[in-house]
Amino acid sequence: MSRFGSWSEEQGLPVFAYQADHEALPEAEWDPITEPKTRRHWLSIGNRRIFAVVANDGTVGLLDEHDGIRWLVAPDPEGSGVSIVEELDGARWGSAFSDRPQGSVPVRTFGPTWFTVSAQSAGLRLERTLLCPEGEAPWVLVRVRLSSVDGRPYAMRHIEEWALRPRFANFLGTTESRREAAQRSVRFDVRSEGAGLRAVEERLEAAAEYEAWPLRQVFGPPLTLRLDAVGNTKAEPTSDGEAHPVLRLVTAVEVPAGGSVDLWFRFGVDDNSAVPDPKALFDSSIRALASRLPKAEADRARFASREIPWHAAILTGGSCADGLLGNHTLNQGSAYMYSIGFNGAARDPFQHALPLVYCEPDLALSVLRNTSSWAKPDGDIPYALDGSKKPFTIMWEPSDQALWSMWLAAEYAAATGNLAAFDAEVPYHPAWVAEPVALREHLSRQFRFFVDGVGLGEGGHVRIRNADWNDMAIVDCGTDRDTMIAEGGSVLNSAMAAWVLPVYAGLCDRLGERSQAGEARALAVQLREKVAGEWNGRWFRRALAPGGHVVGDKDCWLEVQPWAILCGAADERQSRELLATIDELHRAGSPLGARVRWPVAAADAETGLTSQVGNATSGGTWFSINMTLVWAAAKLDPALAWDEWRRMSLAAHTEAYPAIWEGTLSGPDSFNSPESMRPGRTWAAAEIRSAMQAFPVNNLHSHCQPLLSYLRLLGVEPTEEGSLRVGAGTGASFASRTFEVRADGSGRLSALGPVTVENSRGKVEAGPGEATW
Predict the structure, then answer these.
(1) pLDDT of residue 755
(2) Could you give the angle at which helices 439-448 and 514-532 cross, rounded to 10 degrees?
(3) Does 626 map to a domain?
């Protein structure tokens, strides 16, 4: 059981009740590495627009990615968004932990899209709930419930308080530089309007580092923040002229004996919308949330019924309507967005959208369209977008980006039948000054760049460039960097491509792109044969360099191994032997799943990115890699596959490390292995001011990969013919509004176009409409 609290249920949905006094609990203090030690434990929740970073201190940070990565209320050193109660007898207390009633420990409840603080002073109870409403509202809704629990009437003043702390998350900026950039760029003019306060942001000048980038595309259009008392709540504005404006609404409240009073507020970006009935909005949002989140039951993992809807909520809460490119971003989050300040790598939104194909297919398509917009007209997808949404092409030029877009496109088509989506136009990023083209043309150009732009390197394998999936592969290869970039071959990407390309060819066939389908299949056959030749008797080699240098002959790099099984390069005997080796080496004694390398590697002193044994790519455990291990093992050794899936669960992390917050409700992209000096935590590279440990939650891999691998355990995957395969009964189920697989293998699918579903009993062709089997 977690040292911080326990799981329960509200409104039929999972919630976590944080009950610990983190100021008194010794283990609550932790080290973000690049920031001072802290006792704040937080989680980001959201809808399809706003991000609310809610914390155990009862405060909130708000971030909006619509026009750039910018904090409306930065949570440093703490957030804002609190209730203050001033009773007539002079008692003053509130929802912030620092303002809690004397001698009490408020319960802080983390919900899928809401956060509640419950505090009580004598017979008066305060329950403050902040909700991210369903849809694309760029603001949060707050319900403050004041209740008499001792049968006495109470009179008081309630103060709704929000401090404005703007920050622009420019790439690799510091807290100080971002604060200075905001101060150079905006000014808040606080004034009252009716019953509310509005804070108007006025442009002054662009931050110097962005002078070459149009101001509209740095900080977005003019922004107005608004704090409202909504519904029947009547409040008076106050302001005290602090350095950072603090917006306050004061309400006189009389709570009847044994009764309660609800106050309603909203705060965020002013979208000129009205909230005439906040209770109706609150209740309808909870109902809609319960309806859209998938449900699951698994005999082999009882906690699946809790974790599957939770993962789906946090994953979709990481999306944001994109004001520059249209559609929706699905930023990897965690330290990459909130701390470092960028959206990348491009492979990540593509793969994070994969499980959404089966529960929110409209969002999956929106992410496919949005991330495809990043690509240059020749099909080259840049590594990332920086905090101002400018394409980021320095440092890394991966060789695998197009594989992920082709995979998502093929899986979306197989599961929805929505072929018309591929004829709709998708714009290019304005940096490329190019006319929109159909989505199918975007994909065709990305395929062409993969074939001709990336091409083949040493040994006939896909060229590694300066990174494949592993951003540190070139550093860890032990050979000349420039030569490796120019000519090195990635066995990993050859194996992945040998699976992706035939599946993409199935989509091409359905779209009438016969020539491209044939080319994709031919290249896949060629690459599969090359991968098969890299078997060294125990595992598959990782990469090849000119001059006969081989990477991964003496140590096993996990990332290539599942793909070798999935693409068919490994025969059945090799596959079973390989899984046994992984179980013996990578998984042994590792409670959170298989290590990415065995033996665990020591640091490369020059980079510091893998500065300790058992960290990051030097032997950490990675959600994105262990997902493929679960998938591959499910075909040959279901017991191992289910055990690996259990190890990537929140339940497993809490059991192994009950006093570590990250892993309780959310996690990073990778956890350190037991060999690390900080097991159960995540990587840090203080030498270059970069640390996943600085924001070790809300990496979407920790939510996407358990969802996707769970579906693979149920045998759900696209085929080379463009159909959808569903496994026989596994004793586990998954059900969303659009897709269901029952414990006996039967199911249903809501198709937007023609689909073919394959299972052990044959094929079912249907759509548009309901398909059942």
Answers:
(1) 98
(2) 40
(3) no
Q: Report yes or no on 276 lying in a domain.
A: yes
Note the pLDDT tens digit of each residue in 359-400.
999 999 999 999 999 999 999 999 999 988 999 876 789 999
Mean pLDDT calculated for residue range 639-667: 98
Distance separating the N- and C-terminal Cα atoms of the chain: 40
Question: Cα-flanking dihedrals φ and ψ of residue 770, to 5°?
Answer: -85, 130
According to DSSP, the β-strands at 70-73 and 60-64 are antiparallel
Query: What stretches of 461-593 adopt beta strand conformation (E)?
Result: 462-463, 489-490, 543-545, 549-551, 556-557
Q: Spell out the residues 6+ positions from residue 757 whose beta carbon is closer than 8 angstroms to its own.
A: 723, 724, 725, 726, 747, 749, 763, 764, 766, 771, 773
- pLDDT the model gives residue 99: 97
Tokens read off for 430 = 């304005």
- pLDDT > 90 fraction of the chain, expressed in percent and rounded: 81
CA–CA distance, 632 with 593 (Å, rounded to integer): 15
Domain boundary, last residue among 250, 274, 292: 292
Flag whether pLDDT at 284 surpasses 90: yes
pLDDT (0 to 100) of residue 707: 98
Q: Which residues contact 124 (CB under 8 A, 6 or more apart)?
A: 85, 87, 146, 147, 148, 149, 154, 156, 255
Say if residues 76 and 59 touch (Cβ distance below 8 Å): no
Euclidean distance between CA atoms 415 and 725, whole angstroms: 9
For residue 262, the cross-strand partners are: 145
State yes or no: pLDDT of 307 exceeds 80: yes
CA distances from 743 to 46, 298, 299, 646, 755 (A): 31, 8, 9, 18, 22
Task: State the pLDDT at residue 106.
Answer: 98
pLDDT of res. 732: 98
Beta strands 724-725 and 755-759 are parallel
Taking phi over 0 as left and psi of -120 to 50 as alpha, with beta for the rest, 135 belongs to left
Amino acid at 357: V
Mean pLDDT of the chain, nearest integer:
92
Q: Are 637 and 630 in contact (CB under 8 A)?
A: no
Taking CA 479 as the corner, what is the angle to CA 469 and CA 600, rounded to the nearest 5 degrees?
60
Model-level pTM greater than 0.85?
Answer: yes
- What's the number of domains the chain is made of? 2
Number of residues in the chain: 773
Instruction: Render 395-408 in DSSP notation, one character per residue.
Output: S---S-HHHHHHHH
| CATH code, 106 | 2.70.98.40
**Does 609 reside within a domain?**
no
Q: Cis link prior to 345 (omega < 30° from 0)?
A: yes
What is the β-pairing status of strands 70-73 and 167-168?
Answer: antiparallel
Residue 596 forms part of a structural domain: no
Write out the residue range of the structural domain in which residue 739 sits.
Answer: 732-772
pLDDT band at 605 (very low <50, low <70, confident <90, very high): very low
From 232, 264, 292, the end of a domain falls on: 292
Identify the three-state secondary structure at position 557: strand
**C-alpha to C-alpha distance for 616 and 431, rounded to whole angstroms:** 33
What was the pLDDT predicted at 219? 55
pLDDT, mean of residues 487-513? 98
d(CA 583, CA 644): 10
Nearest 10 degrees: Cα torsion 416, 417, 420, 424: 40
